[in-house]
Write a structure and sequence with these properties.
Helix content is 42%, strand content 19%. A nine-stranded mixed beta sheet has the order 3-2-1-4-5-7-6-9-8, with helices on both faces. It has 280 residues and is of the alpha/beta class. The structure holds S-adenosylmethionine.
């Protein structure tokens, strides 16, 4: 057997092993087994989860799935967007959940890494597109819009123009993690969020990226908004309009009970996952 064959066999074996691990994880994690609203392409995506490089807790997918279901049930319409794509690990499920008539918008500086001011991840356009084709359950790349720019130089109007002025129902912020960039990204995403939509912020409680909480807090100090946090867990914090926060809490926690509840910025929030900061 020549070296190329050995390499090929090794890759196949790794792939198989990854799928077996994922199958086992899905079957043995009550959180994942309980996913009532899960659809076929998402199940496939979960099986391939370990093959996509990125930063995402697997257990966030059932939560995302419930948010999607909540919005479908209540006719909360709009597209999905993410700032900070890397290789598309979170964007892919957002894209899958998106109806073919809805827009999905991916924003990353990609090859212009000089705008990645604090070296958070490293977007790669080619890998991202390949991953989208490979892991989106065969979904055609229609109504997909991509912006390859520094998000701190953009505004809500730019995002809306790109998607024919349709607002967004889910907007994830995971780009540059400095306080200033986080504040700008949050302001812009709020500016194009549909009523009842959800903003996802990554790393708010991650002590490696203190700029994120500083930026979110600065947003609330400087701008008037009706945004309320309602969910904390799996390294994400979720916000929606005041009117909807309790409704999301009820819907999610009835299906998947939270670890505990608390309050943040004066709103009730449900908290998921263990408190693992004390574990060495
Ligand atoms: C932590 S990674 C995103 C991880 C991704 N959400 C996932 O699911 O794995 C951060 C991304 O933000 C991008 N980024 C960093 N600074 C940026 C900026 N100023 N404007 C746009 N994108 C930026 C990086 O290129 C990188 O792809």
């Amino acid at each position: 057997m020549n070296q190329n064959n050995i390499l090929y066999m090794g890759k196949r074996l790794k792939l198989l092993l990854n799928r077996i691990i994922m199958l086992y994880t899905i079957k043995t994690t009550p959180f994942l087994k309980k996913m009532g609203a899960i659809n076929k392409p998402i199940k496939k995506y979960l099986l391939q989860f370990r093959e996509i490089e990125g930063w995402l807790n697997l257990k966030f997918i059932p939560i995302l799935s419930l948010i999607n279901q909540f919005q479908i049930d209540r006719h909360i319409e709009g597209g999905v967007a993410e700032i900070g794509i890397h290789h598309g690990k979170l964007f892919i499920p957002l894209f899958i959940f998106c109806d073919e008539n809805e827009f999905s918008l991916a924003i990353d500086c990609f090859e212009k890494q000089e705008f990645n001011y604090d070296n958070s991840g490293k977007g790669d356009y080619k890998i991202f597109i390949n991953n989208l084709k490979k892991f989106s359950g065969g979904k055609k790349l229609v109504n997909l819009k991509i912006i390859k720019e520094d998000s701190t130089k953009l505004n809500a109007e730019t995002y809306l123009r790109k998607v024919e002025n349709n607002k967004f129902r889910i907007f994830s912020i995971d780009g540059c993690h400095t306080a200033e960039a986080t504040k700008i990204d949050l302001k812009n995403s709020y500016g194009c969020l549909t009523e009842g939509g959800v903003i996802i912020i990554d790393d708010y409680f991650n002590h490696h990226w203190p700029g994120v909480s500083q930026g979110v807090n600065a947003f609330f100090n400087e701008y008037k908004s009706d945004l309320k946090p309602f969910f904390v867990g799996f390294n994400k914090i979720l916000f929606t309009n005041k009117k909807y926060a309790d409704k999301y809490i009820k819907f999610i926690s009835e299906k998947i009970p939270p670890t505990r509840t608390s309050s943040l910025f004066g709103s009730q929030v449900v908290i998921y996952g263990p408190n693992d900061f004390l574990i060495e």
